[in-house]
Amino acid sequence: MQHLISPSFLSADFTNLEREIMQMNKSEADWFHLDIMDGVFVPNITFGMPVIKQIKKHAQKPLDVHLMIVQPERYIEEFKNSGADILTVHYEACTHLHRTVQQIKSAGMKAGVSLNPHTPVHLLEDILNDVDMILLMSVNPGFGGQKFIKNTYKKINQLKILGEKNGADFLIEIDGGVDNSNAKKLIEAGADVLVAGSFVFGSENPLETVKSLKYLNF
Ligand code: DX5
Ligand code: ZN
Q1: Would residue 175 show up in a list of annotated catalytic residues for this protein?
Q2: Annotated catalytic, 13?
Q3: Each residue of 181-209: pLDDT tens digit?
Q4: Is 112 a pocket residue for ligand 1 (Cβ < 6 Å)?
């Protein structure tokens, strides 16, 4: 499978959001990655449903919504109604993860589970057959523009092995510090989806940057 690119709008220009969305509509991006932070699970606050609804009006690609909030089960329906297509919750934020994953799927969305850099992948063994995607954080969640954590390569390998052992079928998404120095290696290791925020929106030509991530021509 050709890998997917999901630019993170955390690094977009929010005063020109429509322009940023239109540009990404034209690009080789496959999804739009939206980072929702509550100031409790992570030490930062971003945006919520009203902004997602506005983005949905113009977006021509699926919304890949990454929840960095405590008790995300409180808002599953609301995120669905706001336009989320893929909803990812954190393992560390869910007491009843299995139930939450089922609720996301019953609401008609794809379900993702995310792991912080310090959380081992083997903890996901009993949920692997229920999820559509595992998001491995390659920085500590909360901010764009941080340095990629190299231990992520090992986690991708371990997750691939665990998936095969369990006959599970899910995408592996990598989020944090992705750029031209690690993208190729991440895909070779087995990543299916690359999130990139500052590397895309901080570049001179975001369209070209997305293309380079898609075709790995650096
Ligand atoms: C971080 C977010 C990321 C972030 C990535 O907590 O989950 O999606 O936007 O930004 P970069 O690509 O700049 O590391
Ligand atoms: Zn994210």
Answers
A1: yes
A2: no
A3: 999 999 999 999 999 999 999 999 999 99
A4: no
Smallest Cα–Cα separation from 87: which of 116, 114, 70, 65?
65
Task: Find the domain containing 116 and state its range.
Answer: 4-215
Q: Please give the tally of structural domains in the chain.
A: 1
Report residue 20 as tokens. 């940023």
Integer Cα distance of 202 and 103 in angstroms: 36
> If you measure from the C-alpha of residue 208 to the centroid of ligand 2, how many angstroms do you get, rounded to a whole number?
21
With tokens 């977009």, the residue in question is 12
First to last CA, the chain: 20
- Centre of ligand 1 to C-alpha 127, Å, is 25
Q: How far is CA 95 from CA 99, 101, 131, 159, in A?
A: 9, 11, 16, 22
Q: Which of 64, 175, 179, 192 is catalytic?
A: 175
The CATH number of whichever domain residue 129 belongs to comes to 3.20.20.70
Q: How far is CA 144 from CA 80, 81, 166, 177, in A?
A: 25, 26, 33, 8
Ligand 1 touching residue 11 (CB < 6 A): yes
Query: Which pLDDT does position 98 carry in this prediction?
Result: 98
Rounded to the nearest angstrom, the distance between the alpha carbon of 126 and the centre of ligand 2 is: 24
Q: Following DSSP, what letter does each residue of 80-96 receive, concatenated?
A: HHHT-SEEEEEGGG-TT
pTM beyond 0.90: the answer is yes
Q: Between the CA of residue 58 and those of 18, 26, 78, what are the distances in Å? A: 7, 12, 19
